[in-house]
């Protein structure tokens, strides 16, 4: 290239690029270290000196001190606090943290920072559930901070986190809230599920100020909220904020139909009690050994000491499964692993009859098909039933409790139907837990029903419900109505079973 060509090339370059400047930011650093103790102290609102003092106290109690002098502790703490403050904006939008230009960190540290930042205090969350997440509520956090002895900065951070996540979830109430939270905020599914439960309570603004409901803590409320979402939400969209529209309509319509057929409904339930009781207790006492499943053959075997079923009190049949099994002897001559002697035996009612009478009445929880076999003294033919690995108790009512239920069922069903009707009224739905306590749990407790007896009652309510048996001939969409009614009662059943002994 001659001199003239070079000058022409340089002139062209200056013409196009001479007036512009290309700037580069260069930042070189090692991945930042994250001290979990310092990070927890920063989240809790402690100052640098308070954190350093605690570290120094812990260091002095340790036999092998490695952290150094007080000044080094303070400098390290200040350095970490400075990093966390710079990272706070990114932590509020965790998706940006993976590509943060200033702070490089490994995946474990990034997850630690995000999970720690969005973890919440149960006592503080109990104060926020049911409230509107407004700026006015945020200004009132100083009272909450003083009441709970939690630093104000911590209260504000957790309030802001809840409000930030709620904006994402509440804009799409028909979608799976857990997926929305995990995708937008990079939280673990366990933590996202906790937020989904809390936000469900906030979305419907449940009234938790009532004295009877006030005894429920955050974990119990979240558990109850999950039951409502699971049984009454859209079955095709799990963990969405809205209830299933068809379920609300069907349960509301059933209030009119079932109010006219209350006596018939109770006769069906009572008949179920009587048939189960008569077939399982024709004698005063029958020995039923514990049942265990051999994992290799699937056969039911006898294990350990026998259980006794009494006929004149609440009937109970407990089916347990264990990995330790022994060969199955006849019931009239039980040989167990600890050589226990049966308390009493009866040949007039075989265990086959008991199991065959109970099996049709088992709740939907026994839907997982695992075949088990029981051989009795009166018959060498195995009796096959299907159960899963969970223990199930069938608790029947004695005559006195059955008579009490006979006189109280109408008012009890009225309360259940009122709760079902309130699903369509957002204002009334806010009082769901209070209504369940006052209209269902309190009447059942006045009849001295145990939790197991209550559970069996709801199980029978589900089993016997049939438009044909109840002569609900004018009912449209019968199959859908049956499914929605059973889902509604199952939701009531799970909530009652969980809080029955708490409230």
From TrEMBL:
Pfam families given in the database record: FIBP (PF05427)
Compositionally biased residues, Low complexity: 277-297, 312-348
UniProt feature, compositional bias: Polar residues: 298-311
Region feature Disordered, mapped onto this chain: 277-348
InterPro entries, per the entry: FIBP (IPR008614)
GO CC annotation, single: nucleus
Protein name: Uncharacterized protein
Record organism: Heterostelium pallidum (strain ATCC 26659 / Pp 5 / PN500)
Lineage per the UniProt record: Eukaryota, Amoebozoa, Evosea, Eumycetozoa, Dictyostelia
